[in-house]
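Support request, please re-run this one:
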Amino acid sequence: MKGSIAAKLDQKRQRLVDVSALLPRRARHATWNSFAASREHAELDPVVRTVQPIPRTEQDVAEAQELLADPEMKS
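Re-run finished. Output below.
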């Protein structure tokens, strides 16, 4: 994955953590700010969940390529 894309995804992950901390623990504490945080959380969460496995997948691909380069593993 390109560095710029990885950096943006890291920013989104961190923002999700920050927004999650802003969410109220109880409904009676709900304010306009917590509503906005809730909405932003709802937008970020699916994105972060979707891209979360990418670094592990890239690592798996790199390991598989190393195995392919090993002559003993080819046979």
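The radius of gyration is 19 Å. The helical segments are 3-22, 32-51, 54-69, 71-74.
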